[in-house]
Amino acid sequence: MFIIDAQLLSKANFVRCLIQNLMRHIALAAMASALLFSSAAFAQGNSLGDLLQADAPVNGQTRAERQRELPNLFQQVLVRVSGTTQVLENEIIRNEISSFNDYLLQYGYQSAENVISLQASFDERRVRDLLQRAGFPIWTGDRPQLLLWVAENNPDLGVRLVRRSEQRPFLEGLYSEAQRRGIRMLMPLMDLEDQMAVGARDVWGRFQREVLQASQRYPVAGVVSARMYSAEMPGLESFDDLSVDAFTDAPDAVSLTPIEPNLVMETTIVIGDMQFIEYVTAADEETLARNFVNQVTDRVAALFISQSDDGSELITLRFSGFSDIGQLLAAEQMLQQQGQVYRVHLAQYQQGIAEFHVQVNGGAAWLAQALAFERRVQRIAAPEQDLPVVDDFDTAERKPTLEYRWLR
């Protein structure tokens, strides 16, 4: 509720104050709704079972139609589970695509709004074995949700921010490809708070400080800022000449020879203290968005599932803060669900403190990065030294130790 003393205000001031308060309440309600949606998406995670499912629209339910589409669904699952499109270039994988029925667990159909979709799920053990034989890791667990700011040079409106509510091929390609790859991408609300914090020129001009500050209100793990433009824009001799003023101060325009593809997207991705740049091109908006999602997902996946030169490694995880056995079992299950973890052994448990010995491909660095997106745990501190451990995996040796506090 808000109260305004109309006697102390002029009629104009009264109306202005009323509108400001109304807009503030609308913005708060929209923000609460968006945060609820975002938090639910982040907490949901990506279990391996979810990643092994795929669907696609079909013209009918004939066997010929099904046999034609199932290999595509199988390839979609392999890309999503491995985290990289390079998996389809592997000779072992290519030879197995035609044997998709050996990996198929079940299939079915769903009809909605006169569209028939073929849905299929694939066998976890067989998919794991195939990827392991081909030398690819598995990307499971919570995947980082990314916030995407996109500035474009519109021929009619000039430099502007792309909004999530627009109906355009770019957003259609963005959302559908993100779903296909199993990555979460969120676009800002662009309410009053966003508009006050950052403008189109900030994103276009790569002013990362302003963009990152405006992104703090969103529960995301990474921020992507991008500028999208046509390679046929006049006034530029090269793409490096692009600047905030490229479209306002160009008295001596130099014609740029059109090239194919003619759409360009320059992106900067920031996740924690890591920052990298991707340069994406395509001939149309939808393809540009799909290429963008694929390049960014490949890059992000490489950060979390990179394998160590020594292969798998045995490490120690020490958890504190357990109040009952149920929480202990939940922690053990959480570790087992991480894609690169092969074995989990409870070494000891006493007075709410548990020690697990975990065999993981990618080592302690990979597991620490994966657990950084687990809201149930909190990293205490990086150990100054490794602790000697004796367990049933092998003989006594010094192994990396990670320490966490169980939150819920």
Automatic annotation (TrEMBL):
Keywords: Signal
Keyword Signal set for record: yes
Secretion signal, residue range per the UniProt entry: 1-43
Pfam family, one: DUF2066
Protein name as annotated: DUF2066 domain-containing protein
Organism field: Aliidiomarina iranensis
